[in-house]
């Protein structure tokens, strides 16, 4: 009566909090997902969650199946990895380069989890702030590049990982707190605090300020997210950061944030790899693990 796909669907529904987002995560249409749940409820002769609740409220039967999913699905993933090894797909090297200062929040847990299941794969990690990583990927010096700026290049394949909103963070008494959203011209009199990277690699410039032909009054750099937050909270400037990087500080009322533009500035993070490696078992599993860890641990991200 209960199939693995049912457990995956219920787990996605719990983690996503809505039918729309859950359907995107497991690559179904919303109607197909609803039909699958209705079919399972008819088989079991009971409801699994209460309709029109947000976040979704599961019934006792639904909670029991979620407990089963949490126990069984990791075992299925582990068995799939073992079978991949038996098929000869375990050997390899994964040299990762990251072009995102705040991505360590999800990348480190992903690497830790991956290492436990693929001890035979040689792992290495570097940052791409002092060199151009995509040419190094093409040459074979790197195997995977995490980037929000996909550049068309022969032999390079991009896989979207997830989407996130870039928000403007500011001190709680800042004048822009009184606005519903931030316009490009609002930053013309502000000190913008950024990571020490080229401006053409930052979405706040390429997709928000540059199209409006606006420049901030001053630009200041800081190496670490915690340093940026200290400066912002002290009224030394404002910064554009991923919503997940700001979440903890917003929860503590340490800072305030506002959307960039009326519709918000949504960005997508990609994994770039060589075409000849995109189907390697360990590469596929790393990407699946990255999505799983991200959706479980980061707030405000969406399926890409």
Automatic annotation (TrEMBL):
It holds the Pfam family HTH_1. Residues 2-59 form the HTH lysR-type domain. This is HTH-type transcriptional regulator MetR. Gene3D superfamilies: Periplasmic binding protein-like II, Winged helix-like DNA-binding domain superfamily/Winged helix DNA-binding domain. Belongs to the LysR transcriptional regulatory family. Keywords: Activator, Amino-acid biosynthesis, Cytoplasm, DNA-binding, Methionine biosynthesis, Repressor, Transcription, Transcription regulation. It comes from Marinobacterium alkalitolerans. PANTHER family: HTH-TYPE TRANSCRIPTIONAL REGULATOR, HTH-TYPE TRANSCRIPTIONAL REGULATOR METR. InterPro entries: LysR_HTH_N, LysR_subst-bd, MetR_PBP2, WH-like_DNA-bd_sf, WH_DNA-bd_sf. The lineage of its organism: Bacteria, Pseudomonadati, Pseudomonadota, Gammaproteobacteria, Oceanospirillales. It is found in: Cytoplasm.
